Amino acid sequence: MIFNPSLKVLSVLFHTCLLFLRAQARRSAEFVTYGSVLKLMNPEFEVRLHSHDIKYGTGSGQQSVTATKLQEDVNSHWAITPAMAQYRSRGDAVKCGDIIRLLHLETKMNLHSHLFPSPLSGNQEVSAYGKNGEGDSGDHWEVYCDTGDWLRRDTIKLRHVDTNKFLGVSSKVYNRPITGQYEVAGFDSGVKKSMISWKAMEGVFVHPNEEFKAQFNTYSHPVHTEL
């Protein structure tokens, strides 16, 4: 058998390329990306951001936003979309400082805030607003993080752009018809940090590595953690 050294070189190059692609796939799985659907957990009370087709009885009368201890509730799914008049490709990494919207998957309304008092603590009301994902500038939230890109392991803050309040959870708990769910509200930056902190938990995270998805179908699937 005649040994062809060029075949060995090609083999080394192929394996090097494969290792690079695997590393890129692992790295991309670390990002929170546009188009991803996720649950957000507040570490102070270990509750997940939640909404449902129940209106506030005070304030704006819009769809209420709460936080729940239940991990499995389908009403805690939120999709990450760009700010109005901004374009981001599905799978682009969300960067620290980006202005995003959070679309409630079940009701197609955006996470929203405005100058109404919240019903239990008197902080700023947070609601779900809009129709089929279209609302107004009250749906805009700035991502506060320190790593350049929002990584899934990060604890972040979300600042409401219009009012400069931070999305958080109070210690107040609702009675019927949403017994046991915590009040979500907008807070000043000076409150206890963990009250206005959030962490990406269960979800479907879309990879940003679109260029080599077409060539290597092995890496074409989004990362799925248990919803």
From TrEMBL:
Pfam families: MIR. The keyword Repeat applies. Residues 1-25 form the signal peptide. Residues 29-83, 91-146 form the MIR domain. Keywords: Repeat, Signal. This is MIR domain-containing protein. InterPro entries: MIR_dom_sf, MIR_motif. It comes from the Eukaryota. The keyword Hydrolase does not apply. The lineage of its organism: Eukaryota, Metazoa, Ecdysozoa, Arthropoda, Hexapoda.
